[in-house]
Amino acid sequence: MMLPTHATVGLAIAAPISALAPDLAPAALAGALAGSVLPDLDLYSGHRRTLHYPTVYALLAAPAVVLAAVSTLPAAVALAAFLVGAAVHCRMDRYGGGLELRPWEENSDRAVYDHVRGRWRRPKRWIRYDGSPGDLTLLVALTLPLLVVLEGPFRLVAAAALAVGVTYVALRRRLASLAPVVFGYAPEVLSRYVPDRYRR
């Protein structure tokens, strides 16, 4: 799924805390947002493998949530929300399409790498690919309530995620055709950082 959807899911996970414990809401929202975005920072270096740990994040999240519930310290809440956001991100990637430039062609059996099992998990394709109409539907369904319940910078983040997501969906298939052309002109020094899927 696309990064705006991941970011919005992170906010949606933490949003109930805004009502239950308003003083902890900023820590929970910031932690969940950061955790839901972090795995995709490996986009140009071993994407869905370098920073994607579907089992490890989940195993770390469980005690972190217990600690946050017991201590109610903002730092503990932020850490728990971060780990839950990262774990959900990795799970969502499994429910989406494969790791390829044109995932609608369904040529890849790699969704996310499981370091514990030492193998790639297969995509389930419940949402066919990042930037698909299904991806946009999920983004809109999550964002509209967030625009009502969130305030300040987090409402702006939700609105920005929606705007970026709508734009990305409109351009998604064109970008897949354009990427190999653009990255084909990458200087030799940078070309080693260009993922193989962008060369085809």
UniProtKB/TrEMBL annotation:
Keywords: Membrane, Transmembrane, Transmembrane helix. The chain crosses the membrane at residues 56-84, 127-148, 154-171. It comes from Halorubrum aquaticum. This is LexA-binding, inner membrane-associated hydrolase.
